[in-house]
Amino acid sequence: MAQEYDVIVVGSGITGGWAAKEFTEKGFKTLVIERGRNVEHRGSEYTDMQAPWQIENRNLVPEDFDEQGRYQLIKQKGYFKGATKQFFADDKEHPYSYPDARPFKWVRSYQLGGRSVTWGRQSLRWGPKDFVANKKDGNGVPWPIGYEDLAPWYDYVESFIGVSANRDGLEDLPDGVFQKPWEMSCAEKVIAKNLRKAYSDRRLIIGRAANITEPTAEQMKLGRGQCQARAYCKRGCTFGGYFSSLSATLPAANNTGNLTLITNAIVERVDYDEKLGRASGVSIIDTLSKEKRSYKARVVFLCASALGSVQILLNSKSATFPNGIANSSGVVGRYIMDHFSGVLADGIVPGLDDKFATGRRPIATYIPNYRHENKDGVEFVRGYGFQATAQHRTKTPTHANKAGIGVDVKEVANQPGPWKFRAIMYGEMLPYFDNVASLHPTKTDQWGIPQLHIDARVRDNERKMIRQAAKDIGEILDVGGCVDINVNTTPEDRHIAIGDRIHEMGGACMGNDPNTSVLNKWAQAHDVDNLFVTDGACMSSCATQNPSLTYMAITVRAADYAAKLMQKGSL
Amino acid sequence: MRTFSSEFIISRRVFIGSAMVLVAAPILAGTTNTEKELLVISNSGQFFSAEHMTMLADIAEIMIPLSDTAGATDAHVIPVLDAMMLTWAVAGTKKQFLQLLVKLNEIAKASFQTHYLNLGKDKRVALVSHLDKRAFANQTSELSKSYRKLKKIIFHIYYTSEPANPDFMLIPGTYRGCVTQAELDTFNARGRVS
């Protein structure tokens, strides 16, 4: 007999943790189901207290990963190291599919806490223009909510997670509830000052980080402490200095006594009661025993990551929903998006040779999108921003990869070099109906679940953005005071792998029209009242800002709505 | 008398060829041969033999010698490498490194009619220096690939070692983006940014 709960939350990552916290604190018996293993906060898998010489294999991943074809998707990424590898899923063990000509990068973390353990922590609100973009230019499905709908929930989320940021007063990147910001380096200050003088629309600001600088009583009560500027966040943080499900929402949920948590359980499908016309719960497969079980609940929240939730929706077939639950519109799996890059630039900030930086700031600087309006004669819609940094002076390289040995080369290695400012474009990809995730007709994973097949690509609008962004950043670095400027762009004929920014979104978009969208303004399925999807799948467009803060705000807003309906007995 | 500064006999056969040497066992202890300025490792490591450990320790120290700052020996580069052969390296890498040592001896014998470890310090330094230049000038040969890989891992181990990072702070406490050298020195001495 299936076990019964008030709410089932699928996924324990950044949105699953929030859903768990909200429902348990409101008194609902809540089951959180995580497909990965259990990880203890401050447990043995955290490697943040290891100095470089204490890390296994000096932070190199074992060579046999390559030989065995493991982790091929992320093996070249700077974040995938010996000290962090345990927090990333192996694409060989967890395969998915894509067209040969258009590889898709699906970076996953299958353990308790999900990708909240390794996220970038950049916590940026969307602005009013971001929510009207689809309607304005006719791409994708118009958002059913605006900034004002989310603003109080942004406040609520920021207060709990702790966001260190400056009050910049930017219309398109609204300020929020902030703790003390991180300091810019002197090189970054030079550029910020020069940009402010030269432009009315382009700013270099300090990043807005979910790393706490002034812990609140609420945060300290959960055992969280001030960020210690180590920038080892992707190893887990013993101090609880950055926000994750493990450090904050799950402990808060657990404190209520209303949380039940199971790990190593893959949700195969959302079960649908044909008589009642409701989701009755979920069916899971135990990853270790492969045993199948079912759990029942009044409400189901899918928080399994954008593509993870899409996969579950599509695989939840019934007589009513032969193409997947909540998919009467046929839109489930459509409008897959990610931020895209295509422009990398750097330049030397001259002078300041007598200045240094110390400590490891856990966040970069940021040039917010200044191209919401179609100005300067550009031939694209939407826009882009730049993640950027000159946190430290460069160091002279060693001769590890070039000729030269002995005292002379040793003495010139790792010496303070010039300040170098680096910038990477983050563009807004349009929501394209034909960028789609579907179930592969024949391929399955080791548990017999159909693999997700993801076919997504950038198109003409994004290519035009790249061309303009390359011009812009060259000018910005010049105006900012840089010399020796390099601007590298991705060639027009080279595929840009969607997912590479790890901001994949869409697949179950919100909208007012049940015929063209999957979810309503509460992230509630149009077709199934007691089913909500509040992770990245619900996004109707992707803006340029890092999306996690918005996912969290949408989740708590949806949970509040669902809880009120449950309390009234109408859900 | 053969000069060695630039005339090593690194034949095409030696440079490209390969051979397999099997080795065994653990533990490290050494004595210094003062005449040859050579640290002689008396016990085998976990993967490398004592002789291999001696050669590798010498090569690493030639690459990254003791000066005002720590050298490769102080940083325990080769004992760490020896351990990593069991936890990091694949069979191909193990074979590469062992073959490289065989080749090094072949070069020494071809150039000086004796084993690498019988050479004086100046000849060993010159031999490794020459190999270094040659390996980066011609990167297609197996010897070049093996040497460059060994060099890369030796440098990696060294520059991630405690002696090579005397100012490393595990817990800086905060970040300061614009400090003077004097302030930096103070923070480093304190082991904390505050």
Automatic annotation (TrEMBL), chain A:
Molecular function terms, GO-annotated: flavin adenine dinucleotide binding; oxidoreductase activity, acting on CH-OH group of donors
Cofactor(s) needed: FAD
InterPro entries the UniProt entry points to: FAD/NAD-bd_sf (IPR036188), GMC_OxRdtase_N (IPR000172), GMC_OxRtase_C (IPR007867), P2Ox-like (IPR051473)
Residue ranges of every copy of the Glucose-methanol-choline oxidoreductase C-terminal domain listed in the record: 442-554
Family, per entry: Belongs to the GMC oxidoreductase family.
Domain Glucose-methanol-choline oxidoreductase N-terminal positions: 8-339
UniProt-listed Pfam families: GMC_oxred_C, GMC_oxred_N
Alphabetized Gene3D superfamilies for the sequence: FAD/NAD(P)-binding domain
Keywords: FAD, Flavoprotein, Oxidoreductase
Domain of life: Bacteria
Designated name of the protein: GMC family oxidoreductase
Cross-referenced SUPFAM superfamilies: FAD-linked reductases, C-terminal domain, FAD/NAD(P)-binding domain
UniProtKB/TrEMBL annotation, chain B:
InterPro entries: Gluconate_2DH_su3
Pfam families: Gluconate_2-dh3
Protein name (database record): Gluconate 2-dehydrogenase subunit 3 family protein
Protein species of origin: Thalassotalea litorea
